[in-house]
Amino acid sequence: MAKEKESKKFTTISIPTPLAEKIKKRIKGTGFTSLSSYVTYVLREVISGMEQEEEEVFSKEDEKRVKDRLRALGYID
Amino acid sequence: MSKPHGGKLINRIMNKDLLNTQDLTEFEINTNLAEDVLNIANGVFSPLEGFLCEDDLDNVIKDKRLCDDTPWTIPILLDLDKNNLKEGDSVVLVNKDAGVKALLEIEDIFTYDKKVIAKEIYRTTENSHPGVANTYNMKENFVGGKISLLESKKRKFDEYNLTPKETRVLFKEKGWREIVAFQTRNPPHIGHEYVQKTALTFVDGLFINPIIGKKKSGDFKDEVILKSYDTLMKHYYLKDRAVMSILRTSMKYAGPREAIHHAIMRKNFGCTHFIVGRDHAGVGNYYGPYDAHEIFSDFPDLHIVPIFFRSFSRCSKCGSVVNDKICPHDQEFHINFSGKKIREILNNGEIPPEDMMRKEVSESILEFDNPFVK
Fold first, then answer.
1. Does the ipTM exceed 0.90?
2. How near does any CA of chain A get to the CA of B58, in Å?
3. What pTM was computed for the model?
4. For the domain bounded by B5-151, which CATH number is listed?
5. In this structure, are residues B275 and B183 in contact, taking their beta carbons and an 8 Å threshold?
6. Is residue B123 among the annotated active site residues?
7. I want to staple B180 with a disulfide (CB 3.0 to 4.6 A). Which of B99, B273, B318, B358 is the partner?
């Protein structure tokens, strides 16, 4: 059961063999223990940088209320 | 300013008039859990919308990530007596101290091996670790599901308490694009000031964010920490470059994992940088002194920049505060900023040397009859 759960967490992707060989050479002596861990790291970095912030939920009234409080507490003039 | 963690600032505050909770069962929760409810509702724990279900807990324990791959290192768990509860039920969580009343929509009721939690989160199963002891003291059943905050009351230090929504407006008003957060549990000595000002030099603003709440005997009282920082900021910081707001949450002493958690919370406040010191969130000898630095390399997708500080001291030869990267002189010239020593001096009603703590800060502490928790 646990094994089945674990296997669902990973998927296989194909990359060109020469690239895989290049990566294997590159990660020798680094903290990366496998080709997969390196590719996961790079993809996480790339994808997270591309993610857009969802639309802010502040209304004008909301922002005014917040500013009034910040002013009352002395955070802004 | 940083985007909220997970891309959206969570707001789980509901107008209580829209919901009739009369027929729902109420559960009294402790103040730590009530703080978790407030932190979920106000977006401090974004993207969490409630307490973790088993799948997410499992992922957090094994991969330090939620099921959707978002970095998350500390389990936010609700332990409840199961009674006749079942998945799909809604119940009300209440806490008198924080005046909290919240709706919980139960998605999952489960048990989990507490030894596994202890081992993976705290790296030990020893009961002498405070985080492990708290884990072992939890009830057998965990309940996962979204919460909606219906009520909370005004509390002591509210004038220092800003939500992520408020800090984001504040930073915008101040025109700060890059903000460094400093987490603390103590009044500031000269070493802290050095760290904060060094970091501030490279960004637009400093966000001092003391953790307020349950303390152990011998710790400085919350009001002492706040007064001492007010004093330091008044005399030694530019008003337009530094602000302070409290964070109500309990320390878990989970070392490296908690350093990530602390960074995530500050990211939600809008900070772009986070100061991580030696043995951050550590206790005893459970973690290496720089484990909390190294763990950041596991998270290329965290999007808050850690600023690492190693040990620092005052060098009599340099005539300034130094760290091991910038001072070539022997240990004999170095005086360490010992929190323990400063506490001892203050406990005797004396002012610590000015090269350890600002005189104004020391005096503000000594204005209190007893600055320490008994």
1. no
2. 11
3. 0.92
4. 3.10.400.10
5. yes
6. no
7. B273
